[in-house]
Specification:
Elements lengths: L2 E3 L8 H10 L3 E9 L3 H7 L4 H15 L5 E3 L5 E4 L3 E8 L4 E6 L6 H15 L15 E6 L22 E4 L3 E3 L2 E11 L5 H16 L2 H4 L3
Helix pairs in contact: 3-5
Length: 219
């Protein structure tokens, strides 16, 4: 996957990037409920799980906006990946630990779903932090907390403050006023994303959930 270098001196975001990276190192999170009232029963009708559908939707949203693909390369260069894939967590029921997995993305959801199923079958019993190696450098983290319908979620990231990629977390879906809602939290670095970009993510994700017929293949 190609990594495009950003020329900081020609980047219109340079003053914001430098301010929120070097002066006031700042990340922020936003949590919103995504309406999956029609998507969930459509998935159940096809015998499909929600989590891979969620991974498919968020990957499409991330790949639609360069701000969510901007990061430092392993060599220290600032830039953005042309496309990214999700590195997602899954739970081990027997010892209550989790592992991370990545699955090759496909624009066609049925293909991606089968890739997900194949990976879980092959690597799902692997214990340890990383179940499938080697993980490509062009991944972004996604996790799920299916035991609680949270109204807010925040990660406290220490270190040098140079982790720029979005971190996406879903919770337990719940019923409210006749709707099925999925809480989704997005955490971003203010150096590369503002409230506008976070709003794009939430609104685009809702569009994918609403327009499920276009990619799920149902009438």
């Amino acid at each position: 996957m190609k990594f495009q270098r950003i020329d900081l001196d020609k980047w219109n975001r340079k003053p914001y990037f430098e301010h929120y990276l070097n002066r006031v190192n700042c990340t922020f999170s936003i949590t919103a409920n995504i309406d999956i009232s029609e998507l969930l029963p459509a998935l159940r009708q096809k015998g499909m799980k929600l989590y891979p559908a969620f991974l498919y939707m968020v990957t499409n949203v991330v790949n639609a906006h360069r701000e969510f693909r901007t990061s430092f390369h392993t060599d220290g260069e600032l830039g953005y990946w042309e496309r990214m894939i999700a590195s997602y967590t899954f739970f081990h029921q027997d010892d209550q630990t989790f592992s991370t997995m990545w699955t090759e993305f496909a624009d066609e959801f049925p293909v991606f779903y089968q890739n997900y199923v194949a990976d879980m079958k092959r690597y799902g019993d692997n214990k340890g932090f990383v179940a499938k190696e080697p993980e490509p450098p062009y991944t972004f983290p996604v996790s799920c907390i299916p035991w609680v319908s949270f109204s807010g979620f925040n990660l406290n990231i220490s270190g040098d403050g140079r982790y720029l990629l979005p971190i996406i977390t879903s919770g337990k879906y719940f019923e409210q006023e006749g709707k099925t809602l999925l809480p989704v939290s997005l955490q971003v670095h203010h150096a590369v994303c503002d409230g506008y970009h976070a709003s794009l993510f939430i609104n685009d994700l809702q569009k994918w959930a609403t327009n499920y017929k276009e990619w799920l293949g149902v009438e």
